[in-house]
Amino acid sequence: MTLSREQMAQRVAQEIQDGFYVNLGIGIPTLVANYLPKGIEVMLQSENGLLGMGQFPSEEDVDADLINAGKQTVTVTKGASFFDSAESFAMIRGGHVDLTVLGAFEVDVNGNIASYMIPGKLIKGMGGAMDLVAGAENIIVTMTHASKHGQSKLLPNCSLPLTGKGCIKKVLTDLAFIEIKGGKFHLVERAPGVSVAEIIALTEGELVVPANVPEMKFLIRTNS
Asked: CA-based, 20 to 30 A from 12: which of 22, 78, 170, 191?
């Protein structure tokens, strides 16, 4: 069974520690705000100029003026602040973000990431991805393990234009949690019900598989 988007967000949220300043990219990463571990204080930063972003609002709490970088309505936490995008990117470029969670099209064994364009297809622009991968020490990529055509997104070398070089250390897919080190993928956990053989078959880059690969644990149940 592959992980749902919500389950992927739950697993990534387990990597967030007390006191972290975290930037959540567009797509699956934005869902992480809904699954932050209880009992810790975390400040979520959005590059459109918001520090202290909360989870998605219920229908009655929607405020059209409160949006994230993907133009989705959000809530704010106590002590939140607002500022212009120049100051927001100064935070990012200055290395003040502890963890960044991004989506991607491809990641390779050297920690390179391609996340902003597919040649021949219309794109809206780079956004803040290039700044984020350059300014954050700890980056987790969330994406499907393979394309809808069954082509691996975990490669020996990225085939698409790069967003950043050698910056990705962890990848959470709908099949597995993987670390990147020494020019290789290292399998850490597998999705419940997914076999190691399935993961190997859909990973083009060299994959190191330990003798025992535990299944992921989820602290919150979803309806998916």
From this structure: 78
Domain that holds residue 106: 5-208
Is 157 domain-assigned?
yes
CA-wise closest residue to 44 among 14, 87, 74, 72: 74
User: What's the first-to-final CA gap in the chain, in angstroms?
Assistant: 11
In a domain, 215, yes or no: no
Q: What's the total number of domains in the chain?
A: 1
Identify residue 22 by its one-letter amino acid code.
V
Residue 97 within any structural domain of the chain: yes
2 Rama class: left (phi>0) / alpha (psi -120 to 50) / beta: beta
How many helices (H) and strands (E) would you count in the chain? 4, 13
Question: Cα angle vertex 197, ends 194, 199, to 5°?
Answer: 65
Enzyme catalytic residues: 47
Contacts of 38 (CB under 8 A, 6+ apart): none
**Rounded mean pLDDT, 219-224:** 44
Query: Looking at residue 203, which CATH number applies to its domain?
Result: 3.40.1080.10
Q: Could you tell me the pTM of the whole model?
A: 0.87
| CA atoms of 196 and 224, how far apart (whole Å) | 23
182 lies in some domain: yes
Instruction: For residue range 87-127, list pLDDT tens digits in order.
Output: 998 988 888 899 999 999 999 999 999 998 777 665 666 66
Q: From CA 45, how far away is CA 132, in angstroms rounded?
A: 11
